Amino acid sequence: MEDNDVWHYILPFPLDTQKRKLIWSVLQSKIGKSLLIAMKVDGQTYQRDLINGTAYSNKSIIEYLKRMVSAGMLKQGLEQDSKGKRKVRIKWYVPTKLGRWFILFLKPADEIPSELVRKTVEEIFQVYASSIVELSEDFKIDVEVFHKILTKQYNNRKTK
Asked: One digit per residue, pLDDT tens: the chain, 160 residues?
């Protein structure tokens, strides 16, 4: 296997072990993955739309949504909707930055606007760059080493 024959997606995971376990349980499940794919990347996704849009039971969908909220992938909220004489509370979800990364990871590339891809790559690079700086300080590694690696990889791509 060539060094370039690797999966080129990099996803940050929370340091909290319980949150990581929740995320893995979501990603290993057809239900969890289908809910993430069905989520809007920007804006609110309503629980009723997720329930009506999939073939899974209400109980299963709600369980996975709770896991995603507990894992820090989604934020939830309620809004009032007037249905005739009664008011109905409608639950909605929006992805956190972490959740958006996982949603984009699962969605087909042609469904993602290029501006969103650029923004997301920059966000993830910022997270990793911050970690590299911290590790470099902790282990007395010259940060210039990483700059040289990035420059070399960039130059290699330009010459191909």
From this structure: 566 665 666 778 888 999 999 999 999 999 999 999 999 988 999 999 999 988 899 999 999 999 999 999 999 999 887 776 778 888 999 999 999 999 988 888 888 888 988 888 898 889 888 888 998 999 999 999 999 999 998 898 888 7
* Cα separation of the two ends of the chain: 20
Q: pTM for the complete prediction?
A: 0.81
Backbone φ and ψ for 39, nearest 5 degrees, come out as: -70, 145
Q: Which residues of 104-130 are buried (b: 16+ CB within 10 A; e: fewer)?
A: beeeeeeeeeeeeeeebeeebeeeeee
Contact partners, residue 59, CB within 8 Å, separation at least 6? none
For the chain, how many structural domains are there in total? Answer: 2
Q: Are residues 97 and 47 in the same domain?
A: yes
Structural domain range at position 24: 12-108
